[in-house]
Design brief:
Blueprint: H1 2-8, H2 12-21, H3 56-60, E1 74-80, H4 84-92, E2 97-100, E3 112-113, E4 121-122, H5 132-140, E5 147-149, E6 156-160, E7 163-167, H6 177-183, H7 185-196, H8 209-216, H9 219-233, H10 243-246, H11 248-255, H12 262-276, E8 295-297, H13 303-312, E9 316-317, E10 321-328, E11 333-340, E12 343-354, H14 358-365, H15 370-377, E13 384-392, E14 413-415, E15 424-429, H16 430-433, E16 442-450, H17 462-476, E17 486-493, H18 504-514, E18 519-521, H19 531-549
Parallel strand pairs: 1-2, 1-12, 2-9, 6-14, 12-18
Antiparallel strand pairs: 3-4, 5-8, 6-7, 10-11, 11-12, 13-16, 13-17, 14-15, 15-16
Helix pairs in contact: 1-7, 4-13, 4-19, 6-7, 8-9, 11-12, 14-15, 15-18
């Protein structure tokens, strides 16, 4: 009873901590708290997207890119990779720019599916945090009217010991009773005491996520909240991932939490420092968002890279695969070879921005620096499967906490700790968040399978993966006699999310120093894996290019 009382009357700053730790996350993107104000971004007061102005019509309906025609095939800046980072870097960079990608379409991991009648779902990122940097970009490319937001009060659950426990919701009342039930009163008391006790210094400067939370807030929180969060959002392993790379804001609070007040004092100090140094400014988007909501776009997230590509016009080239990059010390110019639909091409540039997955990046920098190639090649990106399944609403067990009275699931989704003998990392409840994305009498689930703690899953077939996910759903959510689901998609990402393991930051810095001036590393391997992080990474890349082109 005492612990339940602590949950009902927890200090606001303690509640803020839990909400920060378990935000209205997108399961394949990191929380907005990840970086706070990113250390990769240099504050300056110039507009966010001043280089190119476009009409909403052009943004939403991009014209197809014509074959590149330029004198001597030379540009100021060549961007390799047409994910959000690469495309946005192209918009932000002054001078002549070319954004090239081996894929037939822009967007990288953005894959919206609307080819199944009555359904709309994502094989890649499903939602994003509506940070001002991302909203500003969306406004600039004419997609403001396409924004859709989740109900911020939707419950988030953790599955443990055969049941579901609700976590604090950013838009709901400050109710920690579900967390107390999940952790046990003793485990919750360990968290509450750990939050105010002095924080002892770490034994290593770059400690793991597991070591930090075990040292400060206790093993129950690590195993039942942090681990499922890491394994789903990052497809990672908290015993390997770097605390300073994954949760730098919380790590900083730990640094400043010496003396009585501990982490809470550290959070207060960090927030005060953030107000004094607010980071980069962005043009007002004019978009009003309720705090705690997640966002998507009508028609799916693929519309964002399509709109940016449309703004770039023939400065974006699809189906251009970079095969080799060389650098001349005499001229300080880079020469990049491409295989294109029109045959082999060479592009000379003053700078190169590389915004591709780590395996591709390691291969491309091999001709410039063996040290950089080894550093980037050491970044793991374990395979993960994205599985979209549809069930009749009557298939769900009414005794399960997230099941509505009339059938179907209600909430944001559920995370699964790795100790529960369940392979599925987590489920998102898609048409609970966005009701028009499935037939009314069905519930559409998006599940993730694999990651760093289950590397053997990479070898599974699509049929094997969907069967395992269905088996887990039977155990967690469904009636025992539930029918087989409609398997809408099993999308396997052989190289999934880059792992920010211990030593990651040092490896990236070593790679940057080993590469010639004018060669810029960007994207999810450097500045964070969320869409908002990728937008900030693009801004940082553009600033580096600007310095080179002066």
């Amino acid at each position: 009873k005492l612990a339940m009382g602590m949950a009902s009357h927890a200090p606001p700053i303690l509640f803020f901590f839990f909400v920060s730790l378990v935000p209205a996350y997108s399961f394949l993107t990191s929380p907005s708290l990840r970086h706070g104000s990113s250390p990769l971004v240099t504050a300056h007061r110039s507009p966010f997207l001043t280089r190119r102005t476009l009409s909403p019509a052009r943004a939403v309906h991009p014209r197809s890119a014509a074959p590149l025609r330029m004198s001597e095939d030379a540009v100021d800046c060549l961007v390799i990779g047409a994910g959000v980072t690469g495309l946005t870097t192209g918009l932000l960079t002054s001078g002549s720019v070319l954004v090239a990608d081996k894929s037939e379409r822009p967007g990288g991991v953005f894959e919206t599916r609307d080819d199944k009648e009555g359904y709309l779902f994502e094989d890649g990122p499903n939602t994003f945090q509506p940070t001002e940097s991302t909203l500003s970009l969306i406004s600039q490319v004419g997609l403001s009217s396409d924004l859709v937001f989740t109900d911020r009060s939707l419950a988030r659950y953790v599955y443990s010991k055969g049941g579901l426990y609700s976590l604090p919701s950013p838009g709901g009342p400050p109710d920690l009773s579900g967390l107390v039930g999940l952790l046990s009163p003793l485990g919750f008391a360990r968290v509450a005491i750990g939050a105010i006790l002095p924080v002892s210094p770490p034994s290593k400067s770059d400690e793991t996520v597991a070591d930090f939370f075990t040292r400060t807030l206790g093993e129950p929180l690590l195993k039942l909240v942090v681990d499922p969060f890491i394994s789903t959002v990052y497809c990672g392993d908290p015993s390997k991932m770097s605390m300073r790379s994954v949760f730098p804001a919380i790590a900083k609070a730990g640094d400043e939490g010496n003396g009585f007040g501990g982490l809470i004092k550290g959070f207060i100090a960090s927030r005060k420092a953030a107000k004094l140094n607010p980071g980069p400014e962005f043009p007002e988007s004019g978009i009003k968002v309720k705090k705690g909501s997640s966002a998507s776009l009508q028609g799916g997230l693929k519309k964002l890279p399509e709109a940016i590509a449309g703004a770039l016009g023939d400065m974006y080239q699809s189906s251009w695969e970079a095969t080799e990059i060389s650098h001349s010390p005499d001229t300080s110019l880079f020469t990049t070879c491409f295989d294109t639909p029109q045959g082999s091409k060479k592009v000379t540039s003053k700078s190169v921005v590389l915004a591709v997955p780590p395996p591709a990046a390691a291969r491309l920098v091999g001709g410039l620096s063996e040290e950089a190639a080894q550093a980037l090649g050491a970044i793991s990106a374990p395979a993960v499967h994205a599985v979209s399944l549809a069930y009749p609403k009557t298939a769900f067990d009414p005794e399960v906490a997230c099941v509505e009275e009339g059938g179907g699931v209600q909430g944001f989704g559920v995370l699964v700790p790795r100790g529960e003998q369940i392979g599925t990392l987590g489920f998102q409840f898609i048409n609970s968040m966005f009701p028009d994305r499935a037939p009314r009498d069905e519930s559409l689930l998006l599940a993730y399978y694999g990651g760093a703690q289950d590397t053997e899953a990479a070898s599974l077939s699509a049929q094997e993966v969907s069967a395992r996910v269905h088996k887990d759903a039977l155990k967690m959510l469904l009636n025992k006699d539930a029918p087989e689901p409609k398997v809408l998609s099993v999308r396997t990402w052989p190289a999934g999310i880059p792992q920010y393991n211990v030593g990651h930051g040092a490896a990236i810095e070593a790679a940057k120093k080993a590469l010639p001036e004018g060669f810029v590393l960007g994207g999810s391997m450097t500045g964070g894996v969320s869409i908002g992080d990728c937008v900030l990474s693009a801004r940082a890349c553009a600033q580096e290019v600007k310095a080179v082109l002066k």
